[in-house]
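Task: sequence design from structure.
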């Protein structure tokens, strides 16, 4: 058999034989750089979500953002990227290189996940998932809201969306209603 035959056999085994070829996750800096370019061309902001495969609240956040009741709003205003951090020892290979350092820099390694950041298309930080204000039902300033669910978290989230996008009252109502479903 020639070299070409061996190559075809190896390719077939890789494709059909169940042999998994795992690619290394892309570096956080590269993902962000690409997202900033797309955001600039589409006049959007970049919404970065730090998550892990084991995180139930991360899955709830993703489901809420992608829910048909509010996904159009999010897609009109943000470019979403996901950076994997805090994986279990047996899944560390899923983490994006540089993501943990970025998470530690912004979340202080004490916030838990999901944790999000919103940047403009030039990389300027506009907001993060830490609750900022006290009053009007928001009684946990400085804590990570994670996936907004409680009334104070949803109120803080809406304030962040007002600050970082053009949001209509109908969108606010739909997002509030959808995210409050995460309480149960």
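Answer:
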């Amino acid at each position: 058999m020639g070299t070409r035959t061996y190559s075809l056999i190896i390719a077939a085994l890789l494709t059909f034989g169940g042999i998994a070829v795992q690619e290394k996750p892309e570096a956080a800096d590269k993902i962000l750089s690409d997202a900033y370019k797309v955001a600039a061309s589409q006049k959007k902001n970049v919404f970065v979500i730090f998550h892990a495969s084991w995180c139930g609240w991360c899955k709830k956040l993703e489901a809420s953002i992608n829910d048909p009741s509010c996904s159009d709003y999010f897609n009109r205003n943000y470019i979403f990227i996901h950076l994997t951090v805090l994986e279990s020892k047996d899944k560390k290979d899923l983490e994006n290189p540089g993501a943990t350092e970025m998470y530690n820099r912004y979340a202080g390694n004490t916030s838990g996940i999901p944790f999000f950041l919103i940047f403009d298309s030039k990389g300027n930080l506009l907001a993060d998932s830490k609750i900022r204000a006290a009053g009007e039902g928001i009684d946990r300033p400085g804590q990570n809201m994670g996936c907004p669910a409680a009334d104070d978290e949803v109120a803080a989230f809406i304030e962040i969306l007002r600050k970082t996008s053009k949001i209509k009252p109908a969108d606010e109502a739909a997002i509030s209603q959808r995210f409050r479903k995460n309480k149960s």
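The longest helix spans residues 28-42.
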